[in-house]
Amino acid sequence: MGPVVRTVLGDIPASELGVCDAHDHLFLRSPRLPGQELDDPEAAGAELRAFRALGGQAVVQWTPRGMGRRRAALAALASATGVHVVAATGLHQAVHYAREYLERDRDRLAELFVRDLTEGPVRAGLVKVAGGFHGLDAHARHVMAAAAQAHHATGAAVAVHLELGTGAMDVLDLLCGELDVPPGRVVLGHLNRFPDLRVHLRAAEEGAFLAFDGPSRTHHATDWRLFDALTALAEAGHADRILLGGDTTTAAARSSADGPGMPYLLRRLRPALVAELGESFAQGVFVTNPARAFAYPRP
């Protein structure tokens, strides 16, 4: 059997993942976003159906442990809509949790991550971690060490929230240099928020996947610098490292609330990519690359 992607309804051949939103949220809750929770299954289902109507076939939800990820609801939505959904384990930055949630040693955290990835009727398919602003604090290092253990036990990819897009090389130095996670099993998120092409090229040269997410998000260089970044990577031979996602984190950002939402990726961004960089580039970004980035190797 070849590589598989672990969805909330079970493993599927990676080749069947299809057109993928590589970083988004159907459910999300945090004290940092009071009153903006994503907790409505009907609204989440509407977003998935709107995405599917435009040709979308898969969504990777990066919501980790303790932030309202609702795995059973994800499975119900995947079954009802026919969209493949990949769930996450892991932990976000410490500010998203009560103190008692964080008081676990590295081995215990790794055990919890592995359990999420391997046990139960609804299993996670990746480990989500988070860096800090232009560096890594003690919590980030602690969680990334546990995530590396979980990766080595399961083969799961490690997806990284980069705070405002910064700290990519610090993350790779730790995960890949010290903790021996292969760069091709690391997905760096939010790079669009820090549009330093030198950093993007270095991370791609290391072999990591680069996720550009949150199109049309205000106050970030998401749209007007996006094509500069994608073109530079493609011209340097790194088109095979690029992923795109919506990163919808509030109810107001959903398409049903007149935000860009998941459909924007296929309604506006994909046609623009085809016009600017060609059909094969868009096919790689939306289909081929996610299938590789989130796959589990199998003999």
TrEMBL record:
<keyword id="KW-0479">Metal-binding</keyword>
<dbReference type="GO" id="GO:0008270">
    <property type="term" value="F:zinc ion binding"/>
</dbReference>
<feature type="binding site">
    <location>
        <position position="190"/>
    </location>
    <ligand>
        <name>Zn(2+) 2</name>
    </ligand>
</feature>
<feature type="binding site">
    <location>
        <position position="247"/>
    </location>
    <ligand>
        <name>Zn(2+) 1</name>
    </ligand>
</feature>
<feature type="binding site">
    <location>
        <position position="23"/>
    </location>
    <ligand>
        <name>Zn(2+) 1</name>
    </ligand>
</feature>
<feature type="modified residue" description="N6-carboxylysine">
    <location>
        <position position="128"/>
    </location>
</feature>
<feature type="binding site" description="via carbamate group">
    <location>
        <position position="128"/>
    </location>
    <ligand>
        <name>Zn(2+) 1</name>
    </ligand>
</feature>
<feature type="binding site">
    <location>
        <position position="161"/>
    </location>
    <ligand>
        <name>Zn(2+) 2</name>
    </ligand>
</feature>
<dbReference type="InterPro" id="IPR001559">
    <property type="entry name" value="Phosphotriesterase"/>
</dbReference>
<feature type="binding site">
    <location>
        <position position="25"/>
    </location>
    <ligand>
        <name>Zn(2+) 1</name>
    </ligand>
</feature>
<dbReference type="Pfam" id="PF02126">
    <property type="entry name" value="PTE"/>
</dbReference>
<keyword id="KW-0378">Hydrolase</keyword>
<feature type="binding site" description="via carbamate group">
    <location>
        <position position="128"/>
    </location>
    <ligand>
        <name>Zn(2+) 2</name>
    </ligand>
</feature>
<dbReference type="GO" id="GO:0016787">
    <property type="term" value="F:hydrolase activity"/>
</dbReference>
<protein>
    <submittedName>
        <fullName>Phosphotriesterase</fullName>
    </submittedName>
</protein>
<dbReference type="InterPro" id="IPR032466">
    <property type="entry name" value="Metal_Hydrolase"/>
</dbReference>
<comment type="similarity">
    <text>Belongs to the metallo-dependent hydrolases superfamily. Phosphotriesterase family.</text>
</comment>
